[in-house]
Design goal:
mainly beta; Immunoglobulin-like; 3 domains; 6-stranded mixed β-sheet
Length: 573
């Protein structure tokens, strides 16, 4: 009996080992391998079910997790009746795998077809993925996290991904048509005759009239902080009533990976009662920075560490810049808990100082997005009131530490500290009356591509000539922010340029191809605010390149509105 029991135990042990081996082997085989399906499905927005483009049936799609050094294999199947694509935002990879139709030979994915993206993971950090076809970015998106080979510089006990989004029950193409017909279609806060009388009483009739004339000459509206309002703001696909809950134990160090995956919305993110320690920006480690609040442009990511010291719920509060609403999650010790919701802050009003006027001699190149990080709430910004403060940077109460680009410092020294060989100016321009957004006054397709040589060290100076902030994104490589750090300039793939300001970045051109450079506000990009940044191959001559520089020439309307497409099962060409 004992012998038979022993024999049975040995067989059971062998079977267990075989099962574990199969399971382990299966895990290895699946590492970095995903299947994504883009199709229409019902999702809940503002309490109603509406049909939207989804990834694997959801908005957002699944969080993709990789390990630095492994190979990613992601098959995307298009079950819609329109061309689609997936771009891996911030990921270093071969141009054809970038997922931007019309660039580097990639054509998009035709209805009913699949495409397999394959690339080696060369980095770590917090990233995201989204469609780069037409206006699909409004709902076709998801988070992407890459774990590092080495331990994180700042230890933590648990982590969560928080993807902030803006959802609309309207069809995204209809939103664009509405903006083209009337750029102020969604601006529910336009100034009225009562505002004029109030301003005239406070500042004088002459000043009030001049103010209206100045804004009219610029074809701009100081209340137009966001082109689209009425969004349902979400965290991981949940509106505030859904109460996305993040569990913790008192005394734990929690890493929160913030991603602004919205189409058009800036968020002011804070956790009342908790200090946030910023440890990464756009996937790249930085020296820890303690802050109370972060203003996040579209496509920006920040990783923070928090340490709740009490057994109480805390609210992760992401308030939209136009103060039309908020997204929220709850750090809680048990399901069902809810933290307090802060009262809404007043909506700000832009002034001429935001447009670089009335401030002679100011060094705008040293400011840019850093204005949002200054403790300016206690300063006299002009003719603002508590009900309606003036200025892009206004809103946070006195003493609040808001993250500024100048606070960021890379942990490791920069690999290349050569001075730039030349400076390229990129003007962020537009015509609001026609809702036409441009770079250097040219729509994409009418523009001249930016060309640099392989290995060239260049400075890009973004000059914002509009009253809206623009998050500028370059595919395929990182910017080094010129924020005052000599040899530890932070790396980012998206930089927000404040209204009327300039901001400069440096890069070393080491990723060959023709890469999109564009504003990441969805309806600005599809209206033409994009160009091609060409990194020529080593030793290349003009005869070696196509007119758009190692990219596939595709009609402009197809690139902007997503009507290219691979006709068969994809993969490497």
């Amino acid at each position: 009996m004992r012998r038979s029991m022993t024999k049975f135990a040995m067989k059971g042990c062998s079977l267990l080992l075989i099962c574990l081996a199969v399971l382990f082997a299966g895990g290895v085989a699946q590492a970095g391998t995903y299947q994504l399906t883009i199709e229409k499905a019902p999702v809940r927005i503002h309490g109603k079910m509406v049909e939207k483009l989804t990834i694997n049936g959801g908005v957002p799609g699944p969080t993709l997790r990789f390990k630095e050094g492994e190979q990613a294999t992601i098959t995307v199947t298009n079950k819609t009746n329109e061309d689609t694509s997936v771009h891996w935002h911030g990921i270093l990879l071969p141009g054809i795998m970038d997922g931007s139709p019309g660039f580097n030979g990639f054509l998009g994915i035709k209805p009913g077809q699949s495409y397999t993206y394959t690339f080696n993971i060369r980095q770590s950090g917090t990233y995201w993925y989204h469609s780069h076809s037409g206006t699909q970015d409004q709902s076709v998106l998801g988070a992407l996290v890459i774990d590092p080979l080495k331990p994180h510089p700042v230890a933590f006990d648990r982590e969560y991904v928080l993807l902030f989004g803006d959802a609309t029950p309207e069809d995204s193409d209809r939103v664009l048509r509405n903006l083209k017909a009337d750029p102020g279609f969604y601006n529910y806060n336009k100034r009225t005759i009562l505002d004029f009388f109030r301003d005239a009483q406070r500042d004088g009739v002459g000043a009030a009239v001049r103010d209206r004339l100045d804004w009219g000459d610029m074809r701009m509206d100081p209340t137009d902080l966001a082109d689209v309002t009425g969004y349902a703001f979400q965290v991981n696909g949940k509106e505030p009533a859904g109460n996305e809950t993040l569990l913790f134990k008192k005394g734990e160090r929690i890493r929160l990976r913030f991603i602004n995956g919205s189409a058009m919305s800036f968020f002011d993110v804070r956790i009342p009662g908790l200090k946030m320690l910023v440890v990464a920006a756009d996937g790249n480690d930085v020296s820890p920075v303690p802050v109370d609040e972060i203003r996040m442009g579209v496509a920006e990511r920040y990783d923070v560490i928090v340490e709740p010291s009490e057994d109480i719920p805390y609210t992760v509060f992401a308030e939209s810049l136009d103060r039309e609403g908020y997204a929220r999650a709850t750090l809680a010790t048990a399901q069902g808990q809810e933290g307090p919701i802060p009262p809404p802050r007043p909506r700000t009003l832009l002034n001429m100082a935001d447009m670089g006027m009335s401030m002679p001699g100011m060094d705008h190149g040293a400011m840019g997005h850093d204005m949002s990080g200054m403790d300016m709430s206690g300063m006299d910004m002009g003719a603002g009131t508590p009900e309606r403060p003036l200025g892009w940077a206004a809103g946070a109460p006195p003493g609040t530490k808001v993250l500024a680009y100048r606070d960021l410092k890379r942990i490791a020294p920069n690999a290349d500290n050569r001075p730039p060989e030349r400076t390229i100016k990129v003007r962020l321009s537009g015509n609001m009356e026609r809702y036409m957004w441009t770079l250097n006054d040219k729509r994409f397709g009418e523009d001249t591509a930016i060309r640099v040589k392989y290995g060239e060290r260049v400075r890009l100076t973004f000059v914002n000539e509009t009253m809206m902030a623009h998050p500028v994104h370059l595919h395929g490589m990182f910017f080094e922010l010129e924020n005052g750090s000599k040899d530890r300039r932070p790396l980012k793939d998206t930089v927000t340029v404040a209204p009327g300001q300039e901001y400069s970045v440096i890069l070393t051109a080491k990723e060959v191809g023709g890469w999109p450079l564009h504003c990441h506000l969805l309806y600005h990009m599809v209206s033409g605010m994009m160009t091609t940044f060409i990194v020529e191959p080593p030793g290349a001559t003009a005869a070696d390149l196509t007119p758009d520089g190692a990219t596939l020439s595709v009609p402009i309307n197809q690139v902007l509105h997503g009507q290219t497409g691979h006709s068969g099962h994809g993969g490497h060409p």
